[in-house]
Amino acid sequence: MNIGIDKLGFYTSHLYVEMAKLAKAREVDPNKYLIGIGQEKMAVIPPTQDAVTLAANAAASIITKEDMEKIDLVIVATESGVDNSKSVAAYVSRLLGLRKDIRVLELKQACYAATAGLQLAKGHIALHPDKKALVIGADIARYGLKTAGEPTQGGGAVAMLVANDPQILALQDDSVYYADDIMDFWRPLAATEALVDGKYSAGIYLDFFAKVFARYQQETGLTANDFKALLFHLPYTKQGLKALRVAIASLDPTKQAQLLAEFEASKQYSKVTGNLYTGSLYLSLLSLLENSTSLCPGDRLGLFSYGSGAQAEFYSGILQPKFKEALGDHTKLLAHRKEVDVLEYEKIFESNLKHESDRELDITSDPAQFVLAGVKENKRQYIKQ
Ligand code: COA
């Protein structure tokens, strides 16, 4: 059976801040953010967007009426959940107008959970090949103003339709995983910003990558030479580059240059959006598919998923014959965003909806299809515009 990603959608807010300007405001050399961290722009998420609306906006961009008839599983992976009980997927399925005879749930394991969702969806489609599953990674990365993590914030969602005989990428049965109880990044229940031991986290990420990639090669007999591209979770693009350098260290210079060129294509969207947490690896995939000019059907792509806390997985996918026809062009979505200055970004950051029983939000300046209009009697009010 050939199961995998049939469609890929992406949504981020209409606002961004320039990293060079943020660096100036923080009295830091801009090259630290632009080169040292590898980020050029950062999505600024207004209070009218949250994990629910980001997820719904990403999914609405890909699903058709025909898909809606077949979707019977909705998984939303997030670490920016809006409720301790009710899943983001429950809201999203209603906003999208999906059928009621379906399963909906939310998954959490930091930035890794969308990969778990994808693998669970693959199992579901193996049992029900005539159905489709919607898997979405939706998050807002928040570390706090003037913190070390600030330049690695961002937000958005990636939606994936999983189906039998997919148009884009067939997921292979070759996953290798590794888990341990690690305190590298966490967010206590009442906190709206993550706590992170940044350098420790970066080290654990590389350590877990080395472990799963070595075991993957032992178990499959494949090496880095067998991949057209290696894709990484990108909390910031420099982190993925560091892992890629580990993977290609022993390759010949031509293959090294080829994998570096594909990595360049895969980081284009993250570089101007920032960290998407759960969606980040799949934004790298989308960026590669839409920006690389050398991909061919049959090419093998390697995907490294990492979620602090910590869980890692490496697996591969094979590009399908008509993958190009199933793609959009998200460079336009990103190019048409509006720049906000650092003061405005700070104001928006502080106006994030806290735990409030009643508040009305001004939705007039948010052009998204789905928005959060406020909260009434502790119930979040979502609107389709
Ligand atoms: N020009 C070019 N590069 C520069 C520079 C300059 N003027 N100044 C600094 N740099 C480089 C540093 O050498 C370093 O590169 P390296 O990592 O290759 O050594 C990089 O910029 C970052 O500098 P550093 O001093 O380490 O930054 P920091 O202490 O402010 O922290 C992070 C950076 C990424 C650790 C921090 O932003 C963070 O914790 N982010 C969250 C991380 C995260 O998301 N973790 C969990 C998910 S996996």
Tell me what you see in this structure.
The chain has 385 residues and is of the alpha+beta class. The chain folds into 2 domains: 3-170 and 328-384, 3-Layer(aba) Sandwich (Peroxisomal Thiolase, Chain A, domain 1); 171-319, Peroxisomal Thiolase, Chain A, domain 1, CATH 3.40.47.10. Helix content is 35%, strand content 25%. Strands 1, 4, 5, 6, 7, 8, 9, 12, 13 and 14 form a 10-stranded mixed beta sheet that branches. The chain has a 3-stranded mixed beta sheet with strand order 3-2-15. The radius of gyration is 20 Å and the shape is globular. Coenzyme A (COA) binds next to helix 2 and helix 7. Belongs to the thiolase-like superfamily. HMG-CoA synthase family. One of its GO terms (molecular function) is hydroxymethylglutaryl-CoA synthase activity. Its EC number is 2.3.3.10. Residues 264-350 form the Hydroxymethylglutaryl-coenzyme A synthase C-terminal domain.
Say how many strands there are.
18
Shape: globular
**Amino- and carboxy-terminal Cα gap:** 40 Å
The radius of gyration over CA amounts to 20 Å
- pLDDT below 50 for ≥5 consecutive residues: which ranges? none
Mean pLDDT: 97
Which structural class should the secondary elements be placed in? alpha+beta
User: Into which percentage range does the β-strand content fall?
Assistant: 25-35%
The largest pleated sheet is described as:
10 strands, mixed
Q: Give the CATH topology of the largest domain.
A: Peroxisomal Thiolase, Chain A, domain 1
Bound heterogens, unique: coenzyme A
Count helical runs.
Answer: 13
What is the percent of helical residues?
Answer: 25-40%
CATH class of the largest domain: Alpha Beta
CATH architecture of the largest domain, please? 3-Layer(aba) Sandwich
**CATH-level-4 superfamily name of the largest domain:** Thiolase/Chalcone synthase
Q: How many domains is the backbone divided into?
A: 2
Family: Belongs to the thiolase-like superfamily. HMG-CoA synthase family.
Pfam families: HMG_CoA_synt_C, HMG_CoA_synt_N
Keywords: Acyltransferase, Transferase
Protein name: Hydroxymethylglutaryl-CoA synthase
